[in-house]
Amino acid sequence: MAEYRRVVRKKKKKKSVFKRMMFFLLLLLLIVGGYFAFMFVSAWQAADRSYESLERGDKSALREQAVELAKDPVSILIMGVEDYSTGGEGGRSDTLIVMTLNPKEKSMKMLSIPRDTLVDVEGHGETKITHAYSYGGKELTVQTVEDFLDIPIDYYATVNFKAFKKVIDELGGVEVNVPFDFYEKSDVTNKRIYFKEGKQTLDGEEALAYARMRKRDPRGDFGRNDRQKEIITAIIKKATTPQNILKVDDIANQISENVETNLRISEAMGFQQSYSGFKTDKIDQLKIEGEDLNLNSGYYYKPIEEKLDLVKEELQAHLEHKKVSIREGQNENPLAEEDLNSGN
């Protein structure tokens, strides 16, 4: 009988331990789940505060219908806006980078447009492309890039210096391969920041100086464009690492305060699913070839038409953009004419 009671007590003790373990696991799951839910909702609300639509609406004038980031080939224009010298008012777009994404290939093409590129800006004639932002902000800049490249710009994002630095700091810095020794002054202290040839991890302040330097680069604006694309690639690579997924809340807060975009957070979440497994070696970097042009009004960079046409065709093919509508008052697009004639 005594032996029977010992067995019963032992079984009850095991059940009690098992119950406590299950309760602890359940509590742990609730805490972790609650944390992730809170983080997700906070990130969602923060990121959605950066949403700012374009006056044209969701659809480009060069599209027949609106596209979806997760399902369709799309384009994004990143505008690096320098507005600290004007107290946050107006400013100019020192950086213009066009990215096209194709979900079937899970591939990306990236093109920098030099700030001095000679283009036609509606209502202002031929001038530097960087002036489009001064004349008409993001609206006129998007339209000018569309007209220049003959592709629709579906999404835009304006990023100021503050956002650039804070996002990189939240990611724990980015690694770059410095092409040669040089220095650039800090935007914070005005002291020189020195860069040595070779691999180096940069914080936000250093990365901004690295991306801004132009005068000490033998290739001028083109060398700077390559360094800017290198940093964007490094940000994408770093942001998709598992340890930085947990920082989504902090990063979203930084974005909401310093970035404007017509990309909704719900679309960004769909993008993450469609492009899962995306590798930065799938990023194809394109270049606009041209020649120096010195006029009385200053220096310009004039694209070589034949080379520019090849870039346009490559971007159009990546976007699967074979048929376009015509912006009111502009000449007919040859691709549209071709498609209409073929009945496609």
UniProtKB/TrEMBL annotation:
Where on the tree of life does the source sit, at the highest rank?
A: Bacteria
The answer to whether UniProt assigns keyword Thylakoid to this entry is no
Domain named Cell envelope-related transcriptional attenuator: residues: 92-239
Q: Which residue ranges are recorded for the region named Disordered?
A: 325-344
Which keywords does the record carry? Answer: Membrane, Signal-anchor, Transmembrane, Transmembrane helix
InterPro entries in alphabetical order: LytR/CpsA/Psr_CW_biosynth (IPR050922), LytR_CpsA_psr (IPR004474)
Ranges that cross the membrane: 21-44
Where along the chain is composition biased (Acidic residues)?
335-344
By its UniProt entry, which Gene3D superfamilies does this protein fall under? LCP protein (3.40.630.190)
Asked if the record carries the keyword Iron, the reply is: no
Check the record and name the PANTHER family matching this protein.
POLYISOPRENYL-TEICHOIC ACID--PEPTIDOGLYCAN TEICHOIC ACID TRANSFERASE TAGU, POLYISOPRENYL-TEICHOIC ACID--PEPTIDOGLYCAN TEICHOIC ACID TRANSFERASE TAGV
Question: Can you tell me which family this protein belongs to?
Answer: Belongs to the LytR/CpsA/Psr (LCP) family.
NCBIfam families in the record, alphabetically? lytR_cpsA_psr (TIGR00350)
**What is the protein name for this chain?**
LCP family protein
**Source organism of this protein record:** Metabacillus sediminis
